[in-house]
Amino acid sequence: MDVMSSSLQQQRIVVEQLRREASIDRQTISESCAKMMKYITEHEQEDYLLTGFTSQKVNPFREKSSCTVL
What we know:
By secondary structure, this protein is mostly helical. The chain has a single domain, classed as G Protein Gi Gamma 2 (Irregular), CATH 4.10.260. About 55% of the residues lie in helices and about 0% in strands. The chain contains three helices and no strands. The chain has helices at about 1-20, 30-40, 50. The longest helix is centred in the first third of the chain and has 21 residues, at about 1-20. The chain is flat, with a radius of gyration of 26 Å. It is found in: Cell membrane. It is a lipid-anchor. GO terms for molecular function: G-protein beta-subunit binding. One of its GO terms (cellular component) is heterotrimeric G-protein complex.
């Protein structure tokens, strides 16, 4: 009996999750792609992969200078 109630509880949880997922507003791929392309073109001046860094000091990925002790 305990196994059946546990199984029933798990199924209820699954059904609740499926209902939540079914209620999510969906968009077509073409709409999503158009929004992404608009966002990218609006923010391309801020993209360091496209424009690069103004100086090496601003670049957080620059090689760290290592100090060697002789």
